[in-house]
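Backbone-to-sequence.
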């Protein structure tokens, strides 16, 4: 009973959090598949952790056209999925996609981060892998599409879905009926709205809801060209000077006949508009807060009374569910007849199944359909939608010739080739802008002596052309792709997008039959789904950049925006006049961008470069000595408004960052009082920043109602504090400079004493002048390696940029770091010449590095700029050195950070010693100086061991400068250890194989810190070097095999008698060039080393300690190793043409023994395979145990052992003496660079003063050793 109660309680808890098990309780019949391997491999056995049948589902063939489908027996909310391999087998699925549907047709792929998402699956048959969905999906049917599976076996799958029940009232709108929800009062004055609904439709236009009032207020939600548009007007004034109309659009391709959710939340003028988890927040135009509606609000269209006489927008055609309006369930009220549905001809509460059967094409897709052969007519029609400007819609060969129907730069073009007798070609084109993502129809007819092309059913604009000869069909029609190379191959090769309603010879093609293999054939076509994606919605192009797209990517045009980069994120202008001066510029007018990538647009200012100061000047439009005329209302005074050639925010950006600002004002008067000093209310005042009134004048200050002469006590009449206040008939003037910058600039001057007879006044307001840039010079000095500053979490989910200046005498340090659960972002000085930018957004660590030609620890300022967006990552140093890394075509795009931002050091890493200045993140300058004032070890403002010890880095290891020592970088070697002297090797059992794939030039992969060998890129080699060590007692075997995308290869094998053979095949020879070493059995259990190097034809081979022997390739042999592809160790498992001698004689059963220190050029494949935490393209098949291979040396005789023991003992004694001598300062080594760090005035002082406490800040486990 206790177990039952516990289970019931757990089930209720799972239900409350929508995490119930959905698939396991289903019967066998709820599972179906494309095929099964056998009766015991049926789809019904594919339940997680079940072992019935053969332990899961496997299809008859393992390819990308297989699928496993689950019928959940009702619509469910799905929050997570899990997969497992087939029980106790070699069959599992490594990657897959998820489709879902309400009806078992018109499938919708699960998308994440703007792409059709590929889930990572299993790497063995037992461990279940669960994925929490980024958002909840709703559907009855789930379909799993395997994309990659076990190399040792085939597709094997067990699945589970997690979620909870879903139910909602559904209403089918036929385009005629409208639901009218009548208010309880005739007029509603609404301050707050919450409206939600879900809809699906195949029509791109239609009104979903509408309400309006007699005062002009309205609220409308409608589809326009498959985009959702929200229009709202809270009211305009009677003069029309305040317009309240606000229109916001969201989404795209919403006519896909899939469910979309909408949520509108309004409070006063603030609105949140959410479509499918994407929220736009905005404020309505105008000044009113209430939405005044009369009588009713309608759903599904406008009521007849509200439609204009011209007809107005179309009503909605499709289905809606879950309609809620301010707490009322409209769909439920409709079912209970509580709202007006009288306009419906036939109101139904079910959603009809879509009758279309779309097909989705990518760049490798083709669909072949049969037609009439030897016919004299070609009649083809179809609908398509695409973003790509060009692509092949159809190609059909003729006897002789062919017909190509293509999209070329957004228009449909038909090429008819006829090659009988003399060649002839007829071209027809029609339409424009057809790559807009909308559905378009095409009908092509060639009959007797003419051809006709019709676009979108508009027969009045059909294009006709005469044919010089009657055509004759072969009967094969290729849609979306034609890849054979022939004399009449089409100019376009492929198509990216969707097609539906394909007709051939006037008959609708049954794509269901195509899917079942009963009609035609297809390759890489996704049937019964249209997975086209609008990559420009939401628009990742910033600052007004224009987005354009193709089937698989988008690009931004930044022309005329003032910004650059893949997403128009980075400003092309400097932040201030101060920065232009330090670039060597002279006085002139310049465009500046104070917030860089922030929302402020660039603007033009005048820069006056003086010896000691740099002045920024902003001019207004008030002419000097402007006469002040009498206002129409004496009580209001005369208002003079000043306009600057920039927005208020742009002006505020100048004054906020400036050290000092000033503005000259002058009031010339004759019988026109100014401030009415000393006791009266001022006649004149001015308005400044923030629309605040100010009652002081130039030369005075806030709160002092005086002019400059009053401060200096030299006014014309000593009884007054302003010259003009004496009210004399002679012309007087009060002039001076306003210097309180938080009040500037002057935007209005209100003059109040010009109404009397004889009163005259003239006003002068000079330009705003500011000097100094506190953001540019905002700096902090880090004096110890443990000192840091912390700031709030950096928010740069999809777009982030960081820029700063630094100077140091150290050669290592973390500039800044911000961490998340797994995501992170970090900038650091990796060495005296290298700056690194590393991050992880969920696709694995990525590291960009730039190297300077001159040392960076030269105590001079250097500038670092880093940017990451959904398209690429960029790192730039000193505006010269630059590295760009493209983002993966599919993967996570959002940077999720949670910890504080640390500047200087974090996470136990060695911090930065030196100065950082002008640190700007996403356009916001961090106030380093203010934070440094209250942080120990950091002060506001700013006032090489490798040359000696680099020889200790062995085997190609690279010496890296540290602040108080050095380290050896072994990443490009086949060794490990502090000095790159430790062998990296592994013991191979029978059948074990290590594979390392070179990447193509176009591939971009993340490279993490400390990568074991650079990620290789395929290329053509005229020279290479291969070195490794091995020990074995088994022959024959393949030690190393290096393949290519051609028939070139390099192989090192052990023959049956244990002798070594090197086989080179570079082309030009009938048989590979071989080097056979017949004089020695290498399979004797002893360790052996092999070093092979080639330069053009010259091959040099060194074996163990023997002298190097040279060989030469024959003159007939090529010297280029073309397109190096893969390195195999221990065994060869390769597709394509392979030397049969290798496979038949040496490849089985595989190498058994130990391999170590394997290196090919700069690649260490074995090390990469044995370091799985480091990103690489290496993989292991079978069992590989890491070993340094020393354990496999065999004894020859007892005397040899004794001799070796004596030698080792002698060496050890010598080493002990040397170690005691060289490491006698272990843990207490001090340089002359650290003493006095705590008391130093700046980082440079810390480096000079030499403080013993310096090394005490380093964790004991991370101390470095020095010789």
């Amino acid at each position: 009973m206790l177990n039952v109660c516990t289970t019931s309680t757990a089930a209720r808890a799972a239900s409350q959090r929508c995490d119930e098990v959905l698939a396991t309780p289903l019967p066998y019949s709820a599972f179906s598949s494309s095929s099964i391997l056998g009766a015991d491999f049926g789809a019904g056995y594919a339940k997680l952790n079940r072992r019935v049948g053969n332990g899961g589902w496997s299809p008859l063939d393992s390819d990308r056209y297989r699928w496993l489908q689950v019928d959940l027996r009702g619509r469910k909310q799905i929050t997570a999925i899990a997969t497992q391999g087939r029980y106790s087998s070699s069959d599992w699925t490594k990657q897959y996609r998820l489709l879902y549907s309400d009806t078992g047709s018109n499938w919708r792929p699960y998308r994440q981060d703007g792409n059709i998402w590929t889930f990572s699956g299993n790497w063995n048959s037992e461990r279940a892998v669960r994925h929490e969905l980024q958002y909840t999906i709703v559907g009855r049917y789930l379909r799993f599409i395997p994309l990659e599976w076990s190399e040792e076996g085939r597709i094997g799958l067990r699945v589970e879905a997690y979620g909870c029940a879903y139910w909602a009232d559904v209403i089918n709108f036929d385009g005629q009926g409208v639901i009218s929800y009548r208010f309880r009062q005739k007029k509603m004055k609404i301050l707050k709205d919450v409206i939600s609904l879900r809809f699906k439709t195949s029509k791109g236009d239609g009104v979903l809801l509408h309400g309006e009032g007699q005062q002009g207020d309205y609220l409308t939600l409608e589809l326009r060209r498959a985009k959702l548009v929200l229009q709202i007007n809270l009211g305009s004034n009677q003069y029309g000077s305040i317009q309240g109309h606000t229109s916001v659009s969201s989404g795209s391709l919403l006519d896909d006949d899939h469910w979309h959710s909408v949520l509108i939340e309004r409070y006063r003028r603030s609105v949140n508009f959410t479509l499918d988890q994407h929220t736009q927040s905005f404020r309505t135009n105008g000044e009113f807060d209430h939405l005044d509606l009369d009588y009713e609000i309608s759903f599904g269209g406008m009521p007849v009374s509200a439609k204009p006489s011209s007809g107005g927008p179309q009503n909605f055609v499709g289905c809606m569910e879950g309609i809620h309006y301010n707490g009322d369930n409209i769909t439920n009220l409709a079912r209970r007849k509580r709202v007006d549905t009288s306009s419906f001809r036939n109101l139904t509460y079910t959603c009809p199944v879509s009758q279309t059967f779309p097909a989705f094409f990518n760049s490798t897709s083709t669909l072949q359909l049969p037609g009439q052969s030897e016919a004299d007519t070609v009649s083809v029609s179809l609908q398509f939608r695409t973003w790509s400007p060009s692509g092949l819609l159809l190609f059909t060969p003729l006897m002789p010739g062919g017909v190509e129907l293509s999209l070329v730069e957004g228009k449909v073009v038909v090429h008819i080739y006829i090659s009988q007798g003399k060649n002839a070609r007829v071209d027809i084109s029609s339409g424009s802008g057809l790559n807009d993502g909308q559905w378009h129809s095409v009908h092509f007819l060639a009959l007797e002596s003419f051809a006709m092309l019709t676009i979108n059913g508009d027969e009045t604009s059909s294009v006709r052309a005469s044919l010089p000869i009657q055509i004759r069909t072969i009967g094969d029609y290729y849609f979306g792709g034609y890849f054979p190379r022939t004399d009449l191959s089409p100019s376009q090769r492929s198509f990216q997008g969707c097609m539906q309603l394909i007709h051939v010879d006037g008959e609708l093609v049954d794509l269901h039959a195509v899917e079942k293999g009963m009609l035609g054939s297809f390759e890489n076509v996704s049937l019964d789904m249209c997975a086209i994606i609008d990559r420009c919605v939401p628009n990742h192009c910033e600052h007004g950049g224009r987005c354009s797209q193709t089937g698989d990517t988008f690009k931004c045009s930044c022309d005329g925006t003032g910004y650059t980069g893949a997403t128009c994120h980075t400003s092309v202008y400097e932040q201030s006049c101060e920065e232009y001066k330090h670039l060597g510029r002279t006085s002139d007018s310049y465009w500046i961008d104070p917030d860089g990538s922030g929302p402020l647009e660039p603007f033009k200012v005048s820069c006056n470069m003086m010896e000691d100061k740099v002045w920024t000047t902003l001019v207004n439009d008030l002419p000097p000595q402007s006469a002040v005329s009498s206002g129409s209302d004496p009580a209001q005074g005369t208002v003079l408004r000043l306009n600057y050639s920039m927005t208020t925010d742009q002006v505020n950006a100048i004054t906020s960052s400036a050290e000092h600002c000033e503005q000259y004002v002058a009031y010339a008067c004759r019988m026109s009082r100014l401030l009415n000093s000393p006791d009266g209310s001022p006649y004149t005042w001015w308005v400044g920043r923030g629309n605040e009134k100010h009652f002081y004048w130039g030369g005075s200050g806030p709160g002092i109602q005086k002019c400059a002469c009053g401060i200096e006590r030299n006014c014309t009449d000593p009884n007054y504090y302003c010259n003009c206040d004496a009210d004399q008939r002679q012309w007087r003037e009060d002039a001076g400079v306003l210097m309180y910058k938080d009040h500037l600039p002057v935007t209005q001057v209100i003059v109040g004493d010009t109404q009397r007879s004889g009163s005259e006044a003239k006003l002068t307001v000079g330009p705003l002048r500011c000097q100094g840039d506190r953001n540019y010079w905002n700096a902090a000095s880090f004096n110890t390696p443990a000192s840091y500053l912390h700031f709030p979490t950096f928010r740069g989910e999809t777009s982030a940029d960081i820029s700063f200046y630094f100077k140091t005498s150290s050669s290592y340090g973390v500039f800044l770091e911000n961490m998340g659960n797994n995501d992170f972002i970090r900038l650091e000085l990796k060495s005296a010449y290298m700056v690194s930018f590393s991050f992880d957004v969920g696709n694995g660590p990525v590291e960009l590095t730039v190297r300077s030609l001159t040392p960076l620890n030269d105590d001079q300022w250097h500038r670092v700029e880093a940017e990451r967006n959904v398209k690429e990552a960029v790192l730039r140093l000193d505006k010269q050195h630059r590295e760009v890394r493209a983002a993966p075509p599919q993967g996570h795009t959002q940077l999720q950070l949670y910890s504080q931002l640390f500047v200087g050091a974090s996470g136990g890493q060695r911090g930065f010693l030196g100065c950082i200045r002008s640190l700007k993140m996403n356009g916001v300058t961090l106030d380093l100086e203010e934070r440094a004032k209250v942080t120990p070890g950091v002060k506001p403002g700013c006032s090489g061991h490798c040359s000696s010890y680099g020889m200790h880095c062995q085997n190609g290891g690279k010496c890296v400068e540290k602040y108080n020592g050095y380290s050896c970088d072994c990443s490009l070697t086949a060794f490990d250890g502090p000095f790159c002297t430790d062998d990296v090797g592994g013991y191979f059992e029978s059948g074990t194989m290590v594979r390392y794939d070179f990447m193509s030039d176009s591939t971009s992969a993340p490279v993490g810190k400390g990568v074991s060998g650079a990620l290789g890129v395929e290329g053509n080699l005229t020279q290479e070097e291969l070195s490794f060590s091995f020990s074995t007692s088994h022959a024959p075997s393949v030690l190393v095999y290096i393949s290519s995308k051609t028939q070139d290869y390099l192989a090192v094998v052990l023959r049956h008698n244990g002798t070594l053979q090197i086989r080179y095949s570079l082309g030009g020879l009938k048989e590979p060039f071989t080097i056979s070493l017949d004089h020695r059995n290498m399979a004797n259990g002893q360790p052996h080393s092999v070093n092979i190097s080639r330069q053009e034809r010259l091959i040099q081979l060194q074996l163990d300690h023997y002298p190097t022997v040279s060989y030469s390739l024959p003159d007939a042999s090529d010297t280029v190793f073309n397109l190096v592809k893969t390195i195999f160790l221990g065994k060869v498992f390769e597709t394509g043409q392979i030397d049969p001698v290798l496979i038949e004689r040496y490849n089985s059963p595989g190498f058994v023994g130990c391999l170590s220190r394997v290196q090919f050029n700069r690649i260490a494949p074995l090390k990469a395979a044995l370091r799985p935490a480091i990103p690489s393209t290496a993989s292991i098949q079978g069992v590989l145990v890491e070993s340094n291979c020393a354990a496999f040396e065999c004894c020859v005789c007892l005397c040899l052992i004794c001799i070796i023991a004596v030698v080792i003992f002698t060496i050890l004694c010598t080493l002990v003496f040397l170690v005691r001598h060289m490491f006698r300062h272990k843990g207490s080594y001090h340089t002359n660079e650290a003493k006095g760090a705590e008391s130093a005035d700046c980082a440079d002082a810390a480096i000079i003063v030499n403080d013993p406490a310096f090394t005490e800040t380093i964790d004991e486990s991370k101390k470095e050793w020095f010789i």
